[in-house]
Design a protein that fits this description.
The structure is a single chain. By secondary structure, this protein is mainly alpha-helical. Helix content is 93%, strand content 0%. It is built from two helices and no strands. The relative contact order is 0.04.
Length: 164
């Protein structure tokens, strides 16, 4: 009986060991399985990060190119502004010349010499020629200005944020 009891006790102990080790193996397999999932998720996240970094670096490069384009546009606007200022000066000078010419006409009509008439006609022709030249140039400048401003407005409208 003692032998039987000892045999039952040994069997019971072995079953306990087997259950414990199988549970441990199951637990280790479960942990390994959970770690494998984590490792896969980490690898996937790292892949996403590389993709996102690449996209963001491309955006940075595009922003720099856009800023360079804006600088060129700014330079073109400044050049156009300088041209406008130049023509404003020419118009002021032309207006001054017209006032002076009107004074000369008044003086001539008040009893100036006969040859003054020919001088006045010549000056008038030059003033009229300059005026017509200004009109042509300013018409072209106005067309260029209008088209350029439309393009800039369209560009701005295309890039407005929803909140604006």
């Amino acid at each position: 009986m003692r032998t039987l009891l000892l045999g039952v006790l040994c069997c019971s102990f072995l079953v306990h060991l087997l259950n414990t080790s199988t549970g441990q193996e199951k637990s280790e397999a479960k942990e390994h399985s959970e770690h494998a999932t984590m490792v896969k998720e980490h690898a996937s996240a790292a892949s996403d990060h590389r993709k996102w970094e690449s996209e963001l670096r491309m955006m940075q490069a595009e922003h720099k190119r856009a800023l360079a384009t804006l600088r060129r546009l700014e330079a073109e606007i400044l050049d156009h502004e300088a041209e406008v200022e130049t023509y404003l000066v020419q118009i002021t000078q032309h207006e001054y010349a017209l006032r002076e010419h009107n004074k000369e006409i008044e003086e001539h009509e008040a009893g100036g010499a006969g040859d003054d008439h020919e001088k006045l006609a010549k000056e008038h022709a030059e003033l009229q020629k300059h005026h017509e030249e200004l009109a042509r140039v300013l018409s072209t400048l106005s067309d260029h200005h209008r088209k350029f401003m439309e393009q800039i407005k369209e560009l701005g409208d295309e890039h407005k944020h929803d909140g604006e």
